[in-house]
Amino acid sequence: MVYKIILGIGLTITIIAGLSFPMVEIPRFWYEMPIVPGLEDKARIIFFHVPTAWVSVIAFISSLYFGIKYLRNSEYTNDIKSVTAASLGFLFCILATITGAIWAKFSWGTYWNWDPRQTSIFILLLIYGAYFALRSSIENEEKKATLSAVYSIIAGLTVPFFIFIMPRIVASLHPDPIINPQAKIHMNPTMLIIFLLSLIGFTGIYIWMFTLKVKFSILNYSKKMKEQE
Amino acid sequence: MRKYIIPIFAIFQKDFKSELRTRYALNALAMFVVTTISIILFAIANETPSYEILAGILWIIIFFSAMSGMARTFVSEEEKNTVMTLHTITTPVTVYFGKFLFNLILLIVINSFSIILYMLLMPNFEIKSPDIFIVTLALGTFGLASTSTIIAAIIAKSNTKGTLYPVLSFPILLPLLLVVIKATKLALEGEIFSKALPDFQVMLAYFVVITAGSYLLFDYIWKD
Question: Where are the alpha helices (DSSP H) in chain A?
Answer without folding.
Answer: 2-20, 49-73, 76-107, 116-136, 141-160, 166-169, 176-179, 189-228
